[in-house]
Amino acid sequence: MKDFIIPNDRKIFDDRDMGTPAKQGAPVTLTVDGFEVTVPEGTSVMRAAAELGMQIPKLCATDSVEAFGSCRLCVVEIEGRRGTPASCTTPVAEGMVVRTQSEKVKKIRKGVMELYVSDHPLDCLTCGANGDCELQDMAGAVGLRDVRYEPGENHYDPAGIGARSQAEARWRAPEGEANPRYIPKDISNPYFTYDPSKCIVCSRCVRACEEVQGTFALTIEGRGFESRVSAGGPLDDFLTSDCVSCGACVQACPTATLQEKSVIELGTPERSVVTTCAYCGVGCSFKAELNGDELVRMTPYKHGEANRGHSCVKGRFAWGYANHQDRILNPMIRDSVDQPWKEVSWEEAISFAANKMRGLQEKYGRKSVGVITSSRCTNEETYLVQKLARGVFMNNNTDTCARVCHSPTGYGLGQTFGTSAGTQNFDSVMHTDVAVIIGANPTDGHPVFASRLKKRLRQGAKLIVIDPRRTDIVRSAHIEASHHLPLRPGTNVAVVTALAHVIVTEKLYDETFIRERCDWDEFQDYAAFVSDPRHSPEMTEVLTGVPAEELRKAARLYATGGNGAIYYGLGVTEHSQGSTTVMGIANLAMLTGNIGREGVGVNPLRGQNNVQGSCDMGSFPHELPGYRHVKGAEVRAIFESKWGVTIDPEPGLRIPNMLDAAVSGSFKGLYCQGEDILQSDPDTHHVAAGLAAMECVIVHDLFLNETANYAHVFLPGSTFLEKDGTFTNAERRINRVREVMKPKQGYADWEVTQLLANAMGADWNYTHPSQIMEEIAETTPGFAHVNYEMLDERGSVQWPCNDDAPDGSPIMHVDGFVRGKGRFINTEYVATDERTGPRFPLLLTTGRILSQYNVGAQTRRTQNSIWHSEDVLEIHPHDAEVRGIKEGDWVKLASRAGETSLRATLTDRVVPGVVYTTFHHPDTQANVITTDFSDWATNCPEYKVTAVQVGLSNGPTDWQVEYNEQAERSRRIEAAE
Amino acid sequence: MPHEKLIRMANQIATFFATQPGSDQAERVAAHLNDFWGPEMRAELKAHAAQDDSDLSPLVKDALPLI
Ligand code: SF4
Ligand code: SF4
Ligand code: SF4
Ligand code: FES
After folding, report:
1. CB crowding A53-73: b at 16 or more within 10 Å, else e
2. CB-based contact A651 B36, cutoff 8 Å
3. Are B1 and A937 within 8 A, CB to CB?
4. Dihedral, CA atoms, A477, A481, A482, A484, nearest 10 degrees?
């Protein structure tokens, strides 16, 4: 017997549908069928019964959406109340006495079910939802044994032939009349079908699309018996509608009406494993549902603390790449990159690689080789790769792809607050009053977080967007930003400093907070700096293009509108002043006291799933795990005694430095795990030249990616479904990645790194990734209490998790900054050297879209390409007109670094003078255009600003054609003997 | 590494620290270079500066002895 039920306590494995969402409130005690239960005020009677383990029959209620009360299957009797109220819409009351079973309610329920079933094609045995259908279950639960109605008007295909048109659906086929109500199945979405004949019009899908996803793509069309769910307008299907394929409606649907195609094809799954999405930094928890070792579907896990039961199209559906024919499962080697690949055994590949690397070190020196770790790999894998560099190569030449995305976050937040991480958990946004989004496009890049944010905005929170483009969040269903500041690319610092100017000169800052939490003298220096009239919005308007009055209003709103939270992305970091902008953002939060509690904070939205983790694990060349500089003798001593080696006290090479050093001949060998630097890093020609100059490039990956065109050793990697370890998301949440199936290529990725290390003379003997986590916990203070048992018990934990914070740290800097006093830093705007001029008059900025991910290696190998089959260039109609460019034309995009061709689309999302594209496709190679300019502090490339010219072209450039031919040649695999 | 690139990067760092209050900007430029640049890059910068420091910002020049 349960006494008191706290919503969201640690019952992480209780996966039942509780009928209605959990509430928070004062305890209320009632009895249900004689059993006493205490629940928070506002809880429904249905949920209170479910807490006792009693499932009241229901159809239109599910715990992901608010109750609606339409089916009346959930009726109960309540002492002292008339009639039979619906338990899903009736809140509990103190002393309430509920009966869930009585002759009266049983009769009503049977009647309801009879009506539903009378208009339902009873093809249960061959239905895709057989065994997983609530209508079936409820028919059983209410004891429905016969249906008294004569077959009459209905919505299905009486011939049962899966008619593709209404006319085909003949009443008593084949010669009878067509059924005018039959609507054929909509199979337009690549991942799920909509079969209107099975719809019971419970509206769960409509509510899920509104409340959970916030897209409002679905409506109920028609009235009464005629009503059906509809996506978009009369001529739309799911694919052409506003639907973003998040799957929330499919998840909510109680019948086979909305059903995953994979389940229709493979059958209902029989086992499930909880794991973590391997795409973006939201780090959603999923249940991988399987038959044997065949994955049937991924469903968002409702106890996942990052996603609270929601998902986006990538994590939910785009996992087909795991079985794609391009996947390489055998190790391969070659002596030179113009040879075809030769498949060899693991032993041969590892010893070939080890000999080459050792040989290079002997010939060219200890520092001539290095590693690149990946944000797509687990913490444990990443830890081992940097350990390989430090403990086996004996140098600090380790870097990570975070170099090219969030390295300025690490530097900027480290300098101001003392930690290199975001300050909040995602739940915090539900307490935000003013959200500021700078240089991020969450509806595309971080969709599940965007859904939470949109929910909060619908509840009345205000939104400020600072972005050169009018991104979707600026205006979408039921949401409109209070202020959109469409700045010129490259002027972030000027805008952020102008915001601070307004806050300081209009005295909107929080003096108490600053006096208590920051250094008052530093604040005064800073205040004098930002107060200078040159930082005023009026003076900076000519540079930034942001109307001064609008900027002033935005500053006032952020400073005075209640809890203010800043969310930012790569539009902040990928600039020559990326680190300065991050510091400017931290200044704003300190100025306004928006730090250290729920609803506020500074939140970097991380691009890839484990960007946070890969940085935490010591991937950077100057830092050991836990962001401790290699120059610190005490820190080195911790690892030296553990590893039995001497660690180099000098920083190693960063990725761009490795490439430069390769071109100039001193860097010769690279082990690159899970990254495609040729496609993702700036100035492709330069990257290619660097790779080509190396004598041994080891690529450890799923596919022969672009970097592999220059590789000598290919070690097949495993997908997240085959990994065992942890990912750390943008909220510092350490989530388990569980081995859903065995690695298809034979070895887990951490084992491969260990094989290579041992072949080079190390003596590592980890037998399970949990031992690697034990070593991390032992050596890294923020992880001291982290271990797999704890994660399995709790679900996840946010670091720091140690003696000071045994339950982890959802919010940071609560009682003080990690570095002691928060530090204000002057942020002077310095124009980038990348300037427009007569030859290159436009500014190119880059970004991503919802359905694709990073360089597209995974998503391009799924049906997501239906939404984005090529990169296109967004150009303002004015700029297009003067160049004679029309919608869909091939255009040449040229910068001083190179040129490429792609198709153009005309849109006023971008302002005149700015063009925009994505970088998901190797054919386009947007990075041929980007230059080698970079952030002053971290060398994070300046992807977001490139001066370009755009002109009409006839198709791909010679370079693109040549590149494709070369890539093709390089991917040849010698036929087995 | 091409000298222009090294110089540009060093000057960029100096440009930032030049805007900070206090009188220890040169020390801070040097500290940044020592912390984030590998010894080979620092040596290259110094070697280049010894031959020709005309492109280096004054602050980088002040920082050189501390690198
Ligand atoms: S998949 Fe998502 S966006 Fe599309 S209709 Fe369903 S809930 Fe709405
Ligand atoms: S499609 Fe499913 S969830 Fe939507 S109204 Fe029909 S039965 Fe209900
Ligand atoms: S891609 Fe991001 S938002 Fe989408 S399911 Fe995966 S972790 Fe969640
Ligand atoms: S479940 Fe309560 S009315 Fe439908």
Report:
1. ebbbbbbbbbbbbebbebbbb
2. yes
3. no
4. -150
Are A210 and A351 part of one and the same domain?
no
CATH number, position A96:
3.10.20.740
Distance (Å, whole) CA A117 – CA A271: 29
* Cβ–Cβ under 8 Å, residues A651 and B35: yes
Last residue of a domain, one of A298, A323, A348: A323
Q: Find the residue in B nearest to A631 (Cα).
A: B35
ipTM greater than cut 0.90: yes
Residue A42: how many CB atoms within 10 A of its CB? 16
* Chain A: closest CA distance from residue B13 (Å): 5
Give the residue from chain A lying closest to B10, CA to CA: A936
The answer to whether position A976 is within a domain reads no
Please identify, by atom number, the ligand 4 atom nearest to the C-alpha of residue A87.
2
Q: Which residues of chain A have pLDDT under 70?
A: 1-13, 149-152, 158-178, 402-405, 607, 848-857, 922, 925-926, 976-977
- In tens, the pLDDT along A800-828 reads 888 888 888 888 888 888 778 888 999 98
How far does the centroid of ligand 1 lie from the alpha carbon of residue A320, in Å? Answer: 20
End position of a domain, from candidates A303, A323, A343: A323
| Model confidence pLDDT, tens digit, residues A927-972 | 777 777 888 888 887 878 888 999 998 877 787 788 888 888 888 8
User: Does B15 reach chain A within 8 Å, measured CB to CB?
Assistant: yes
Nearest CA to ligand 1 atom 3: A243
Same domain? For A181 and A212 the reply is yes
Is A464 within a domain?
yes
State whether A879 and A904 are in the same domain: yes
Is the CB of B40 less than 8 angstroms away from the CB of A661? yes
Q: Is the peptide bond before A800 cis (omega within 30 degrees of 0)?
A: yes
Q: Is residue A413 part of a domain?
A: no
Q: Which residues of B touch A658 (CB under 8 A)?
A: none
**Domains: count for chain A:** 5
Question: How far is the centre of ligand 3, averaged over its atoms, from the C-alpha of A562 (Å)?
Answer: 29
Residues A440 and A294 in one domain: no
Q: Does A336 lie in the same domain as A318?
A: no
Is the CB–ligand 1 distance for residue A213 below 6 Å? yes
- Within a domain: residue A211? yes
Q: Whose CA is nearest to atom 8 of ligand 1?
A: A209
- CA of residue A656 relative to chain centroid, distance: 26
Euclidean distance between CA atoms A613 and A729, whole angstroms: 7
Structural domain span for residue A53: 2-126
Whether residue A362 sits in one domain with residue A310: no
Length of chain B measured in residues = 67
Q: Which residues pair with B3 in a beta bridge?
A: none
Is any atom of ligand 1 closer than 6 Å to the C-beta of A65? Answer: no
Whether residues A70 and A31 fall in one domain: yes
**Does A629 contact B35 at a Cβ distance shorter than 8 Å?**
yes
Mutation test residue for ligand 3: of A282, A449, A737, the one with most atoms within 8 Å of CB: A282
